[in-house]
Amino acid sequence: MRFRLPLIGAALILAINAPDVLAQQEHRRGFGFSGSLGWSTIGGDFGELLTSGIPAEGSIWYQPSWWRFGISIHAASYSAVEPFQDQTISQMEFQLFGTFLFLRGNLVQPYAQVRAGATRWRPEGPLFDPNPPPPDVPPGENPAPGENGFQGGLALGAEFWVTKNFGLDVAGLFSAFSTEEFDVPILGITGLSSGTELGFRAGVVWFP
Amino acid sequence: MIGAARRMARRLSPLAAATVIAAVPSALQAQQAGPRAPEDALAFAVRVQAPGDTTRLSAFFRPGALTLSGKTSSARPDLTNLERMMTDAGGTARLFDELFGKKGGEPLVGEPGDDRPAGEDAESPPGAADDQQVDGARYDVWGAKRNPGFAIAEVAGTNALVWFFNEYPRGGNFTSVSPRSWWFNISHGFFWDDNHFKTNMFAHPYHGSLYFNAARSNGLNYFESLPFAILGSFMWECCGETHLPAINDWIMTSLGGASIGEILYRAGSTFLDNERTGGSRTWKEIGNFFLNPVRGFNRLTSGRSERIYANPADPYDRLPPHLHNFLKLGVRHIGDRTSSETFESDTTTTHMFFEFDMTHGNVFEDTRRQPFDFFTLGIQLNFGDTERIGRLQIHGNLFTSDIAQGEKTHHVFAITQNYDYVNNSAVEFGGLSYGAGFFSRFMMSEKWNFHTEVNLHFYLLNAVNSEFAFIGGRPPNVERFREYDFGIGPGAWARIGFSHSGRQVAGLFYRFVYNETLNGSDANGGDTHHTVSFGGFQGVFPIGRWGVGADIIAYVRRSTFEDIGFSNIKQDVGQVRFYGVFQSF
Q1: Are residue B24 and residue B86 in the same domain, yes or no?
Q2: pTM of the prediction?
Q3: Can you give A114-180 as a three-state secondary structure string?
Q4: Does the distance separating the beta carbons of A206 and B178 come in below 8 Å?
């Protein structure tokens, strides 16, 4: 009942904008942006240490035709397993991606996205960033540096164009990554070097 | 248009003419493909290079005007006239009537009968005097399309770059950001931070200038660009670092960033020349890129850095009618005496310095009075002192209006935005204020005039060096002890100056600032405040554009710490400077 009004509103917006959206999407080309928040779980080696996290992603891309190419920044922090659930491990990824748009020119536009890039994992939280810092670490520098690696993955999703410039985006994500050996001695965990990430994202797409 | 091009072609050598005629259809095709910018909609450019010759000619067409510009490295008899026109008056010429018959019979530049003074800018075709609409899109006077979307993307990109530098090369401990840290920062609100004075009062405003110019160079004006600096700074404070958001950072990055950003935009505009070609154009674009990287990037990626098109028509958008630059190189002797009931220190040092002062526009001229059409800028580099950049002050008019004007007097009112940064071994003072300025000019004779300025302002934030700043208001993730207090308060300055034939020869100034400390030595709610006074006299003996000068400047600080159990501090800093001067105006 309480969702009826927003749903009617959304349907009206879609109905009013549909002709414009359809006219625009079919021949659309140019730069655009997208941003999203999501939820994901970690498997593999890193799954021994981490449970779930909230990733955020921001992208800039160019769409010349049915394809869309761009770069994105993906940032997440994952909670450690009990009893260290207050400590987190952050993940930062720089990715290049290519997206193929199916049914171009429709209000609902499914897509498949292939992505690959660099990944960096780093401990965060009070255990890893003591205050004051250890005497051998100058102020402002990180006492718990991260480890770098590579990752690749796939996203399957759909865009829902609400206006000719603005759409909603929902996708499922899978990626695999490999890093240099990642040790967290303070938690008694060493030698993590690979993992998988499975989750979903929801966000917005914008053709300025 | 084709006919005009052919007529122009007939004036060239047959060899070069063939090239021009060949070039015109492709240019027309480009035009027919749809306008991309106002200059494309109204005009197009053709580049001609005579085969076997190093002569290059660029022709810029628009209804009623043609600009020829280029460089020649060899003199061909059949290009003599064009060559002369191209090299005359900075390499541009107007040929309205010859090619389009709008003013038939008027002689060409440099031809017999042409009485236009050599070097006069009248030869340049008129550019846009205001924003233009083309196909529903708005373009500014520099041909930049109004594009808030790209401005937002560039603001985010700037933050991403700064984050990347701090995370990877620097290995900072505040860059492990994620949605979790974003929510933590947003939910905990604003604090005050403990960064170095230079970081808080200079580096952050410079960072803010990048946000501001992301908008400014995407076709937005001063006030439209301001929210981008405010939002860009908020984006960094909440989401670019794990340190808790700092209110001092937000104020100085956004509003200080707008001050620095606007003067960098204006300074870059004095470099740029859309009608130039070749090496001089390249160097001008590089100079602008160095001053204003975001604008340089936008000009480069949009093709405007190499496209030949008209400069803005209003001189205030490029080279204002009154652009007074003042360069000083010399030595400064500085003495610092700090004392209290229990403490006394007395030091003196002597160092070299370089100073650059700019006055952009004339506050008494009312041809146009948009924000920062009139501003003063002062930069001082100190050699051998604790910091190389010892002073940066920007005072710009946001709104200007005449109060009264007589035969020999003129009084003007202005709302001003003032950014101050003074950082040397004795003094740390900075802030961001808005105020009311009263400017007066008294013409004493044909050559001598006397001008005054009184400014009453309020600091949204100021910072003053303080002996006990470390005892209170420390942030949760303290990494160092701050040596300056943050506060708010009123301020005022008064200046009197004498000029001879437009050259500044003598001046007196006094400035007062009050700092009601909000964070620092106001431990446990105790009342702490500072009063700061600057005063000085300056004299210059001009010899043409050159000259020699000297000034005496005093900085007096009175800090009240009684409420927190410490004795009050008196700091008296005196400075004497001797220097050589170069003035351009």
Answers
A1: yes
A2: 0.79
A3: EEEEEEEEEEECCCCCCCCCCCCCCCCECCCCCEEEEEEEEEEEEEEECCCCEEEEEEEEEEEEEEE
A4: no
